[in-house]
């Protein structure tokens, strides 16, 4: 992949996950810098992965070819305004991983001719199993699109969307989705503990069932998920009764409402920040 000088503004969960995945996959650490006001998160990244750590957003952005905006949406306007005063963004590629901040808003904050790609990653990027959605406005060049795609391919799979609205759909289906599965697994682990298993055993049971199920999905690309479910569900058996509880409580409707709630919040954030 192309190796450009890369600067992360923000050193939190998501920046850390991407930096770790990039370095593990061979991206040169000396080309990566990470900025945050406090050393609490960025210094461990510097010592673990050999990237440069700094509290100076402006100096790092000035030096970089590619600036990754990885702060919370609430802070984005202030961070961008400070950058805009000192940094010439012409000739740079800006990547935003923020939910709920549109390209139009970034152009207001950083300049009209901004060369920007929106990326919606998720935390499994930390272990090279990320799922990222990408959107680039028409004016972004093919080499910049290729670079953005290659960057996120280094930490997982990528899915380009043709319209910016698609980024909010990616949030619902992938960006926020690890938390849905963690919630489900937490509830299962708690019940396994109530059944008398130790915390460690309960976690192992749930973790292995979940990773075994996803491995089976990955190994069966032509089998619909419904078929995989039916393969577990013996007639007159236990799974049928368990699934009946989920369907009686309208699990598919709950999932649909939860995903729509994520989209609605992203749309609200687009107005708020
Ligand atoms: N956590 C997740 O699963 C995902 C998060 N995102 C997006 O990633 C962005 C970051 O989210 P997280 O990493 O979860 O947040 P976080 O709260 O873990 O990290 C934010 C980082 O920004 C730093 N920061 C605060 N003020 C700063 C400033 N003035 N200059 C530079 N850095 C500053 C903080 O020190 C912290 O390191 C958000 O915009 C979020 O929408 C996108 C997809 C998934
Ligand atoms: O909760 C959030 O707003 C961010 C975006 C997707 C995952 N986390």
Automatic annotation (TrEMBL):
Localisation: Cytoplasm
Major location (coarse): cytoplasm
EC number: 1.5.1.2
Recorded catalytic activity of this chain's protein: L-proline + NAD(+) = (S)-1-pyrroline-5-carboxylate + NADH + 2 H(+); L-proline + NADP(+) = (S)-1-pyrroline-5-carboxylate + NADPH + 2 H(+)
Binding-site residues, NADP(+): 9-14, 70-73
Listed GO MF terms: pyrroline-5-carboxylate reductase activity
Entry keyword set: Amino-acid biosynthesis, Cytoplasm, NADP, Oxidoreductase, Proline biosynthesis
Matching Pfam families: F420_oxidored, P5CR_dimer
Binding site for NADPH: 57
Residue span(s) of domain Pyrroline-5-carboxylate reductase catalytic N-terminal: 5-100
Domain Pyrroline-5-carboxylate reductase dimerisation: residue ranges: 164-269
Pathway in which this enzyme or protein is active: Amino-acid biosynthesis; L-proline biosynthesis; L-proline from L-glutamate 5-semialdehyde: step 1/1
PANTHER family (alphabetical): PYRROLINE-5-CARBOXYLATE REDUCTASE (PTHR11645), PYRROLINE-5-CARBOXYLATE REDUCTASE 3 (PTHR11645:SF0)
Function of the molecule: Catalyzes the reduction of 1-pyrroline-5-carboxylate (PCA) to L-proline.
Family: Belongs to the pyrroline-5-carboxylate reductase family.
Database matches in HAMAP family: P5C_reductase
Protein name per Swiss-Prot or TrEMBL: Pyrroline-5-carboxylate reductase
Gene: proC
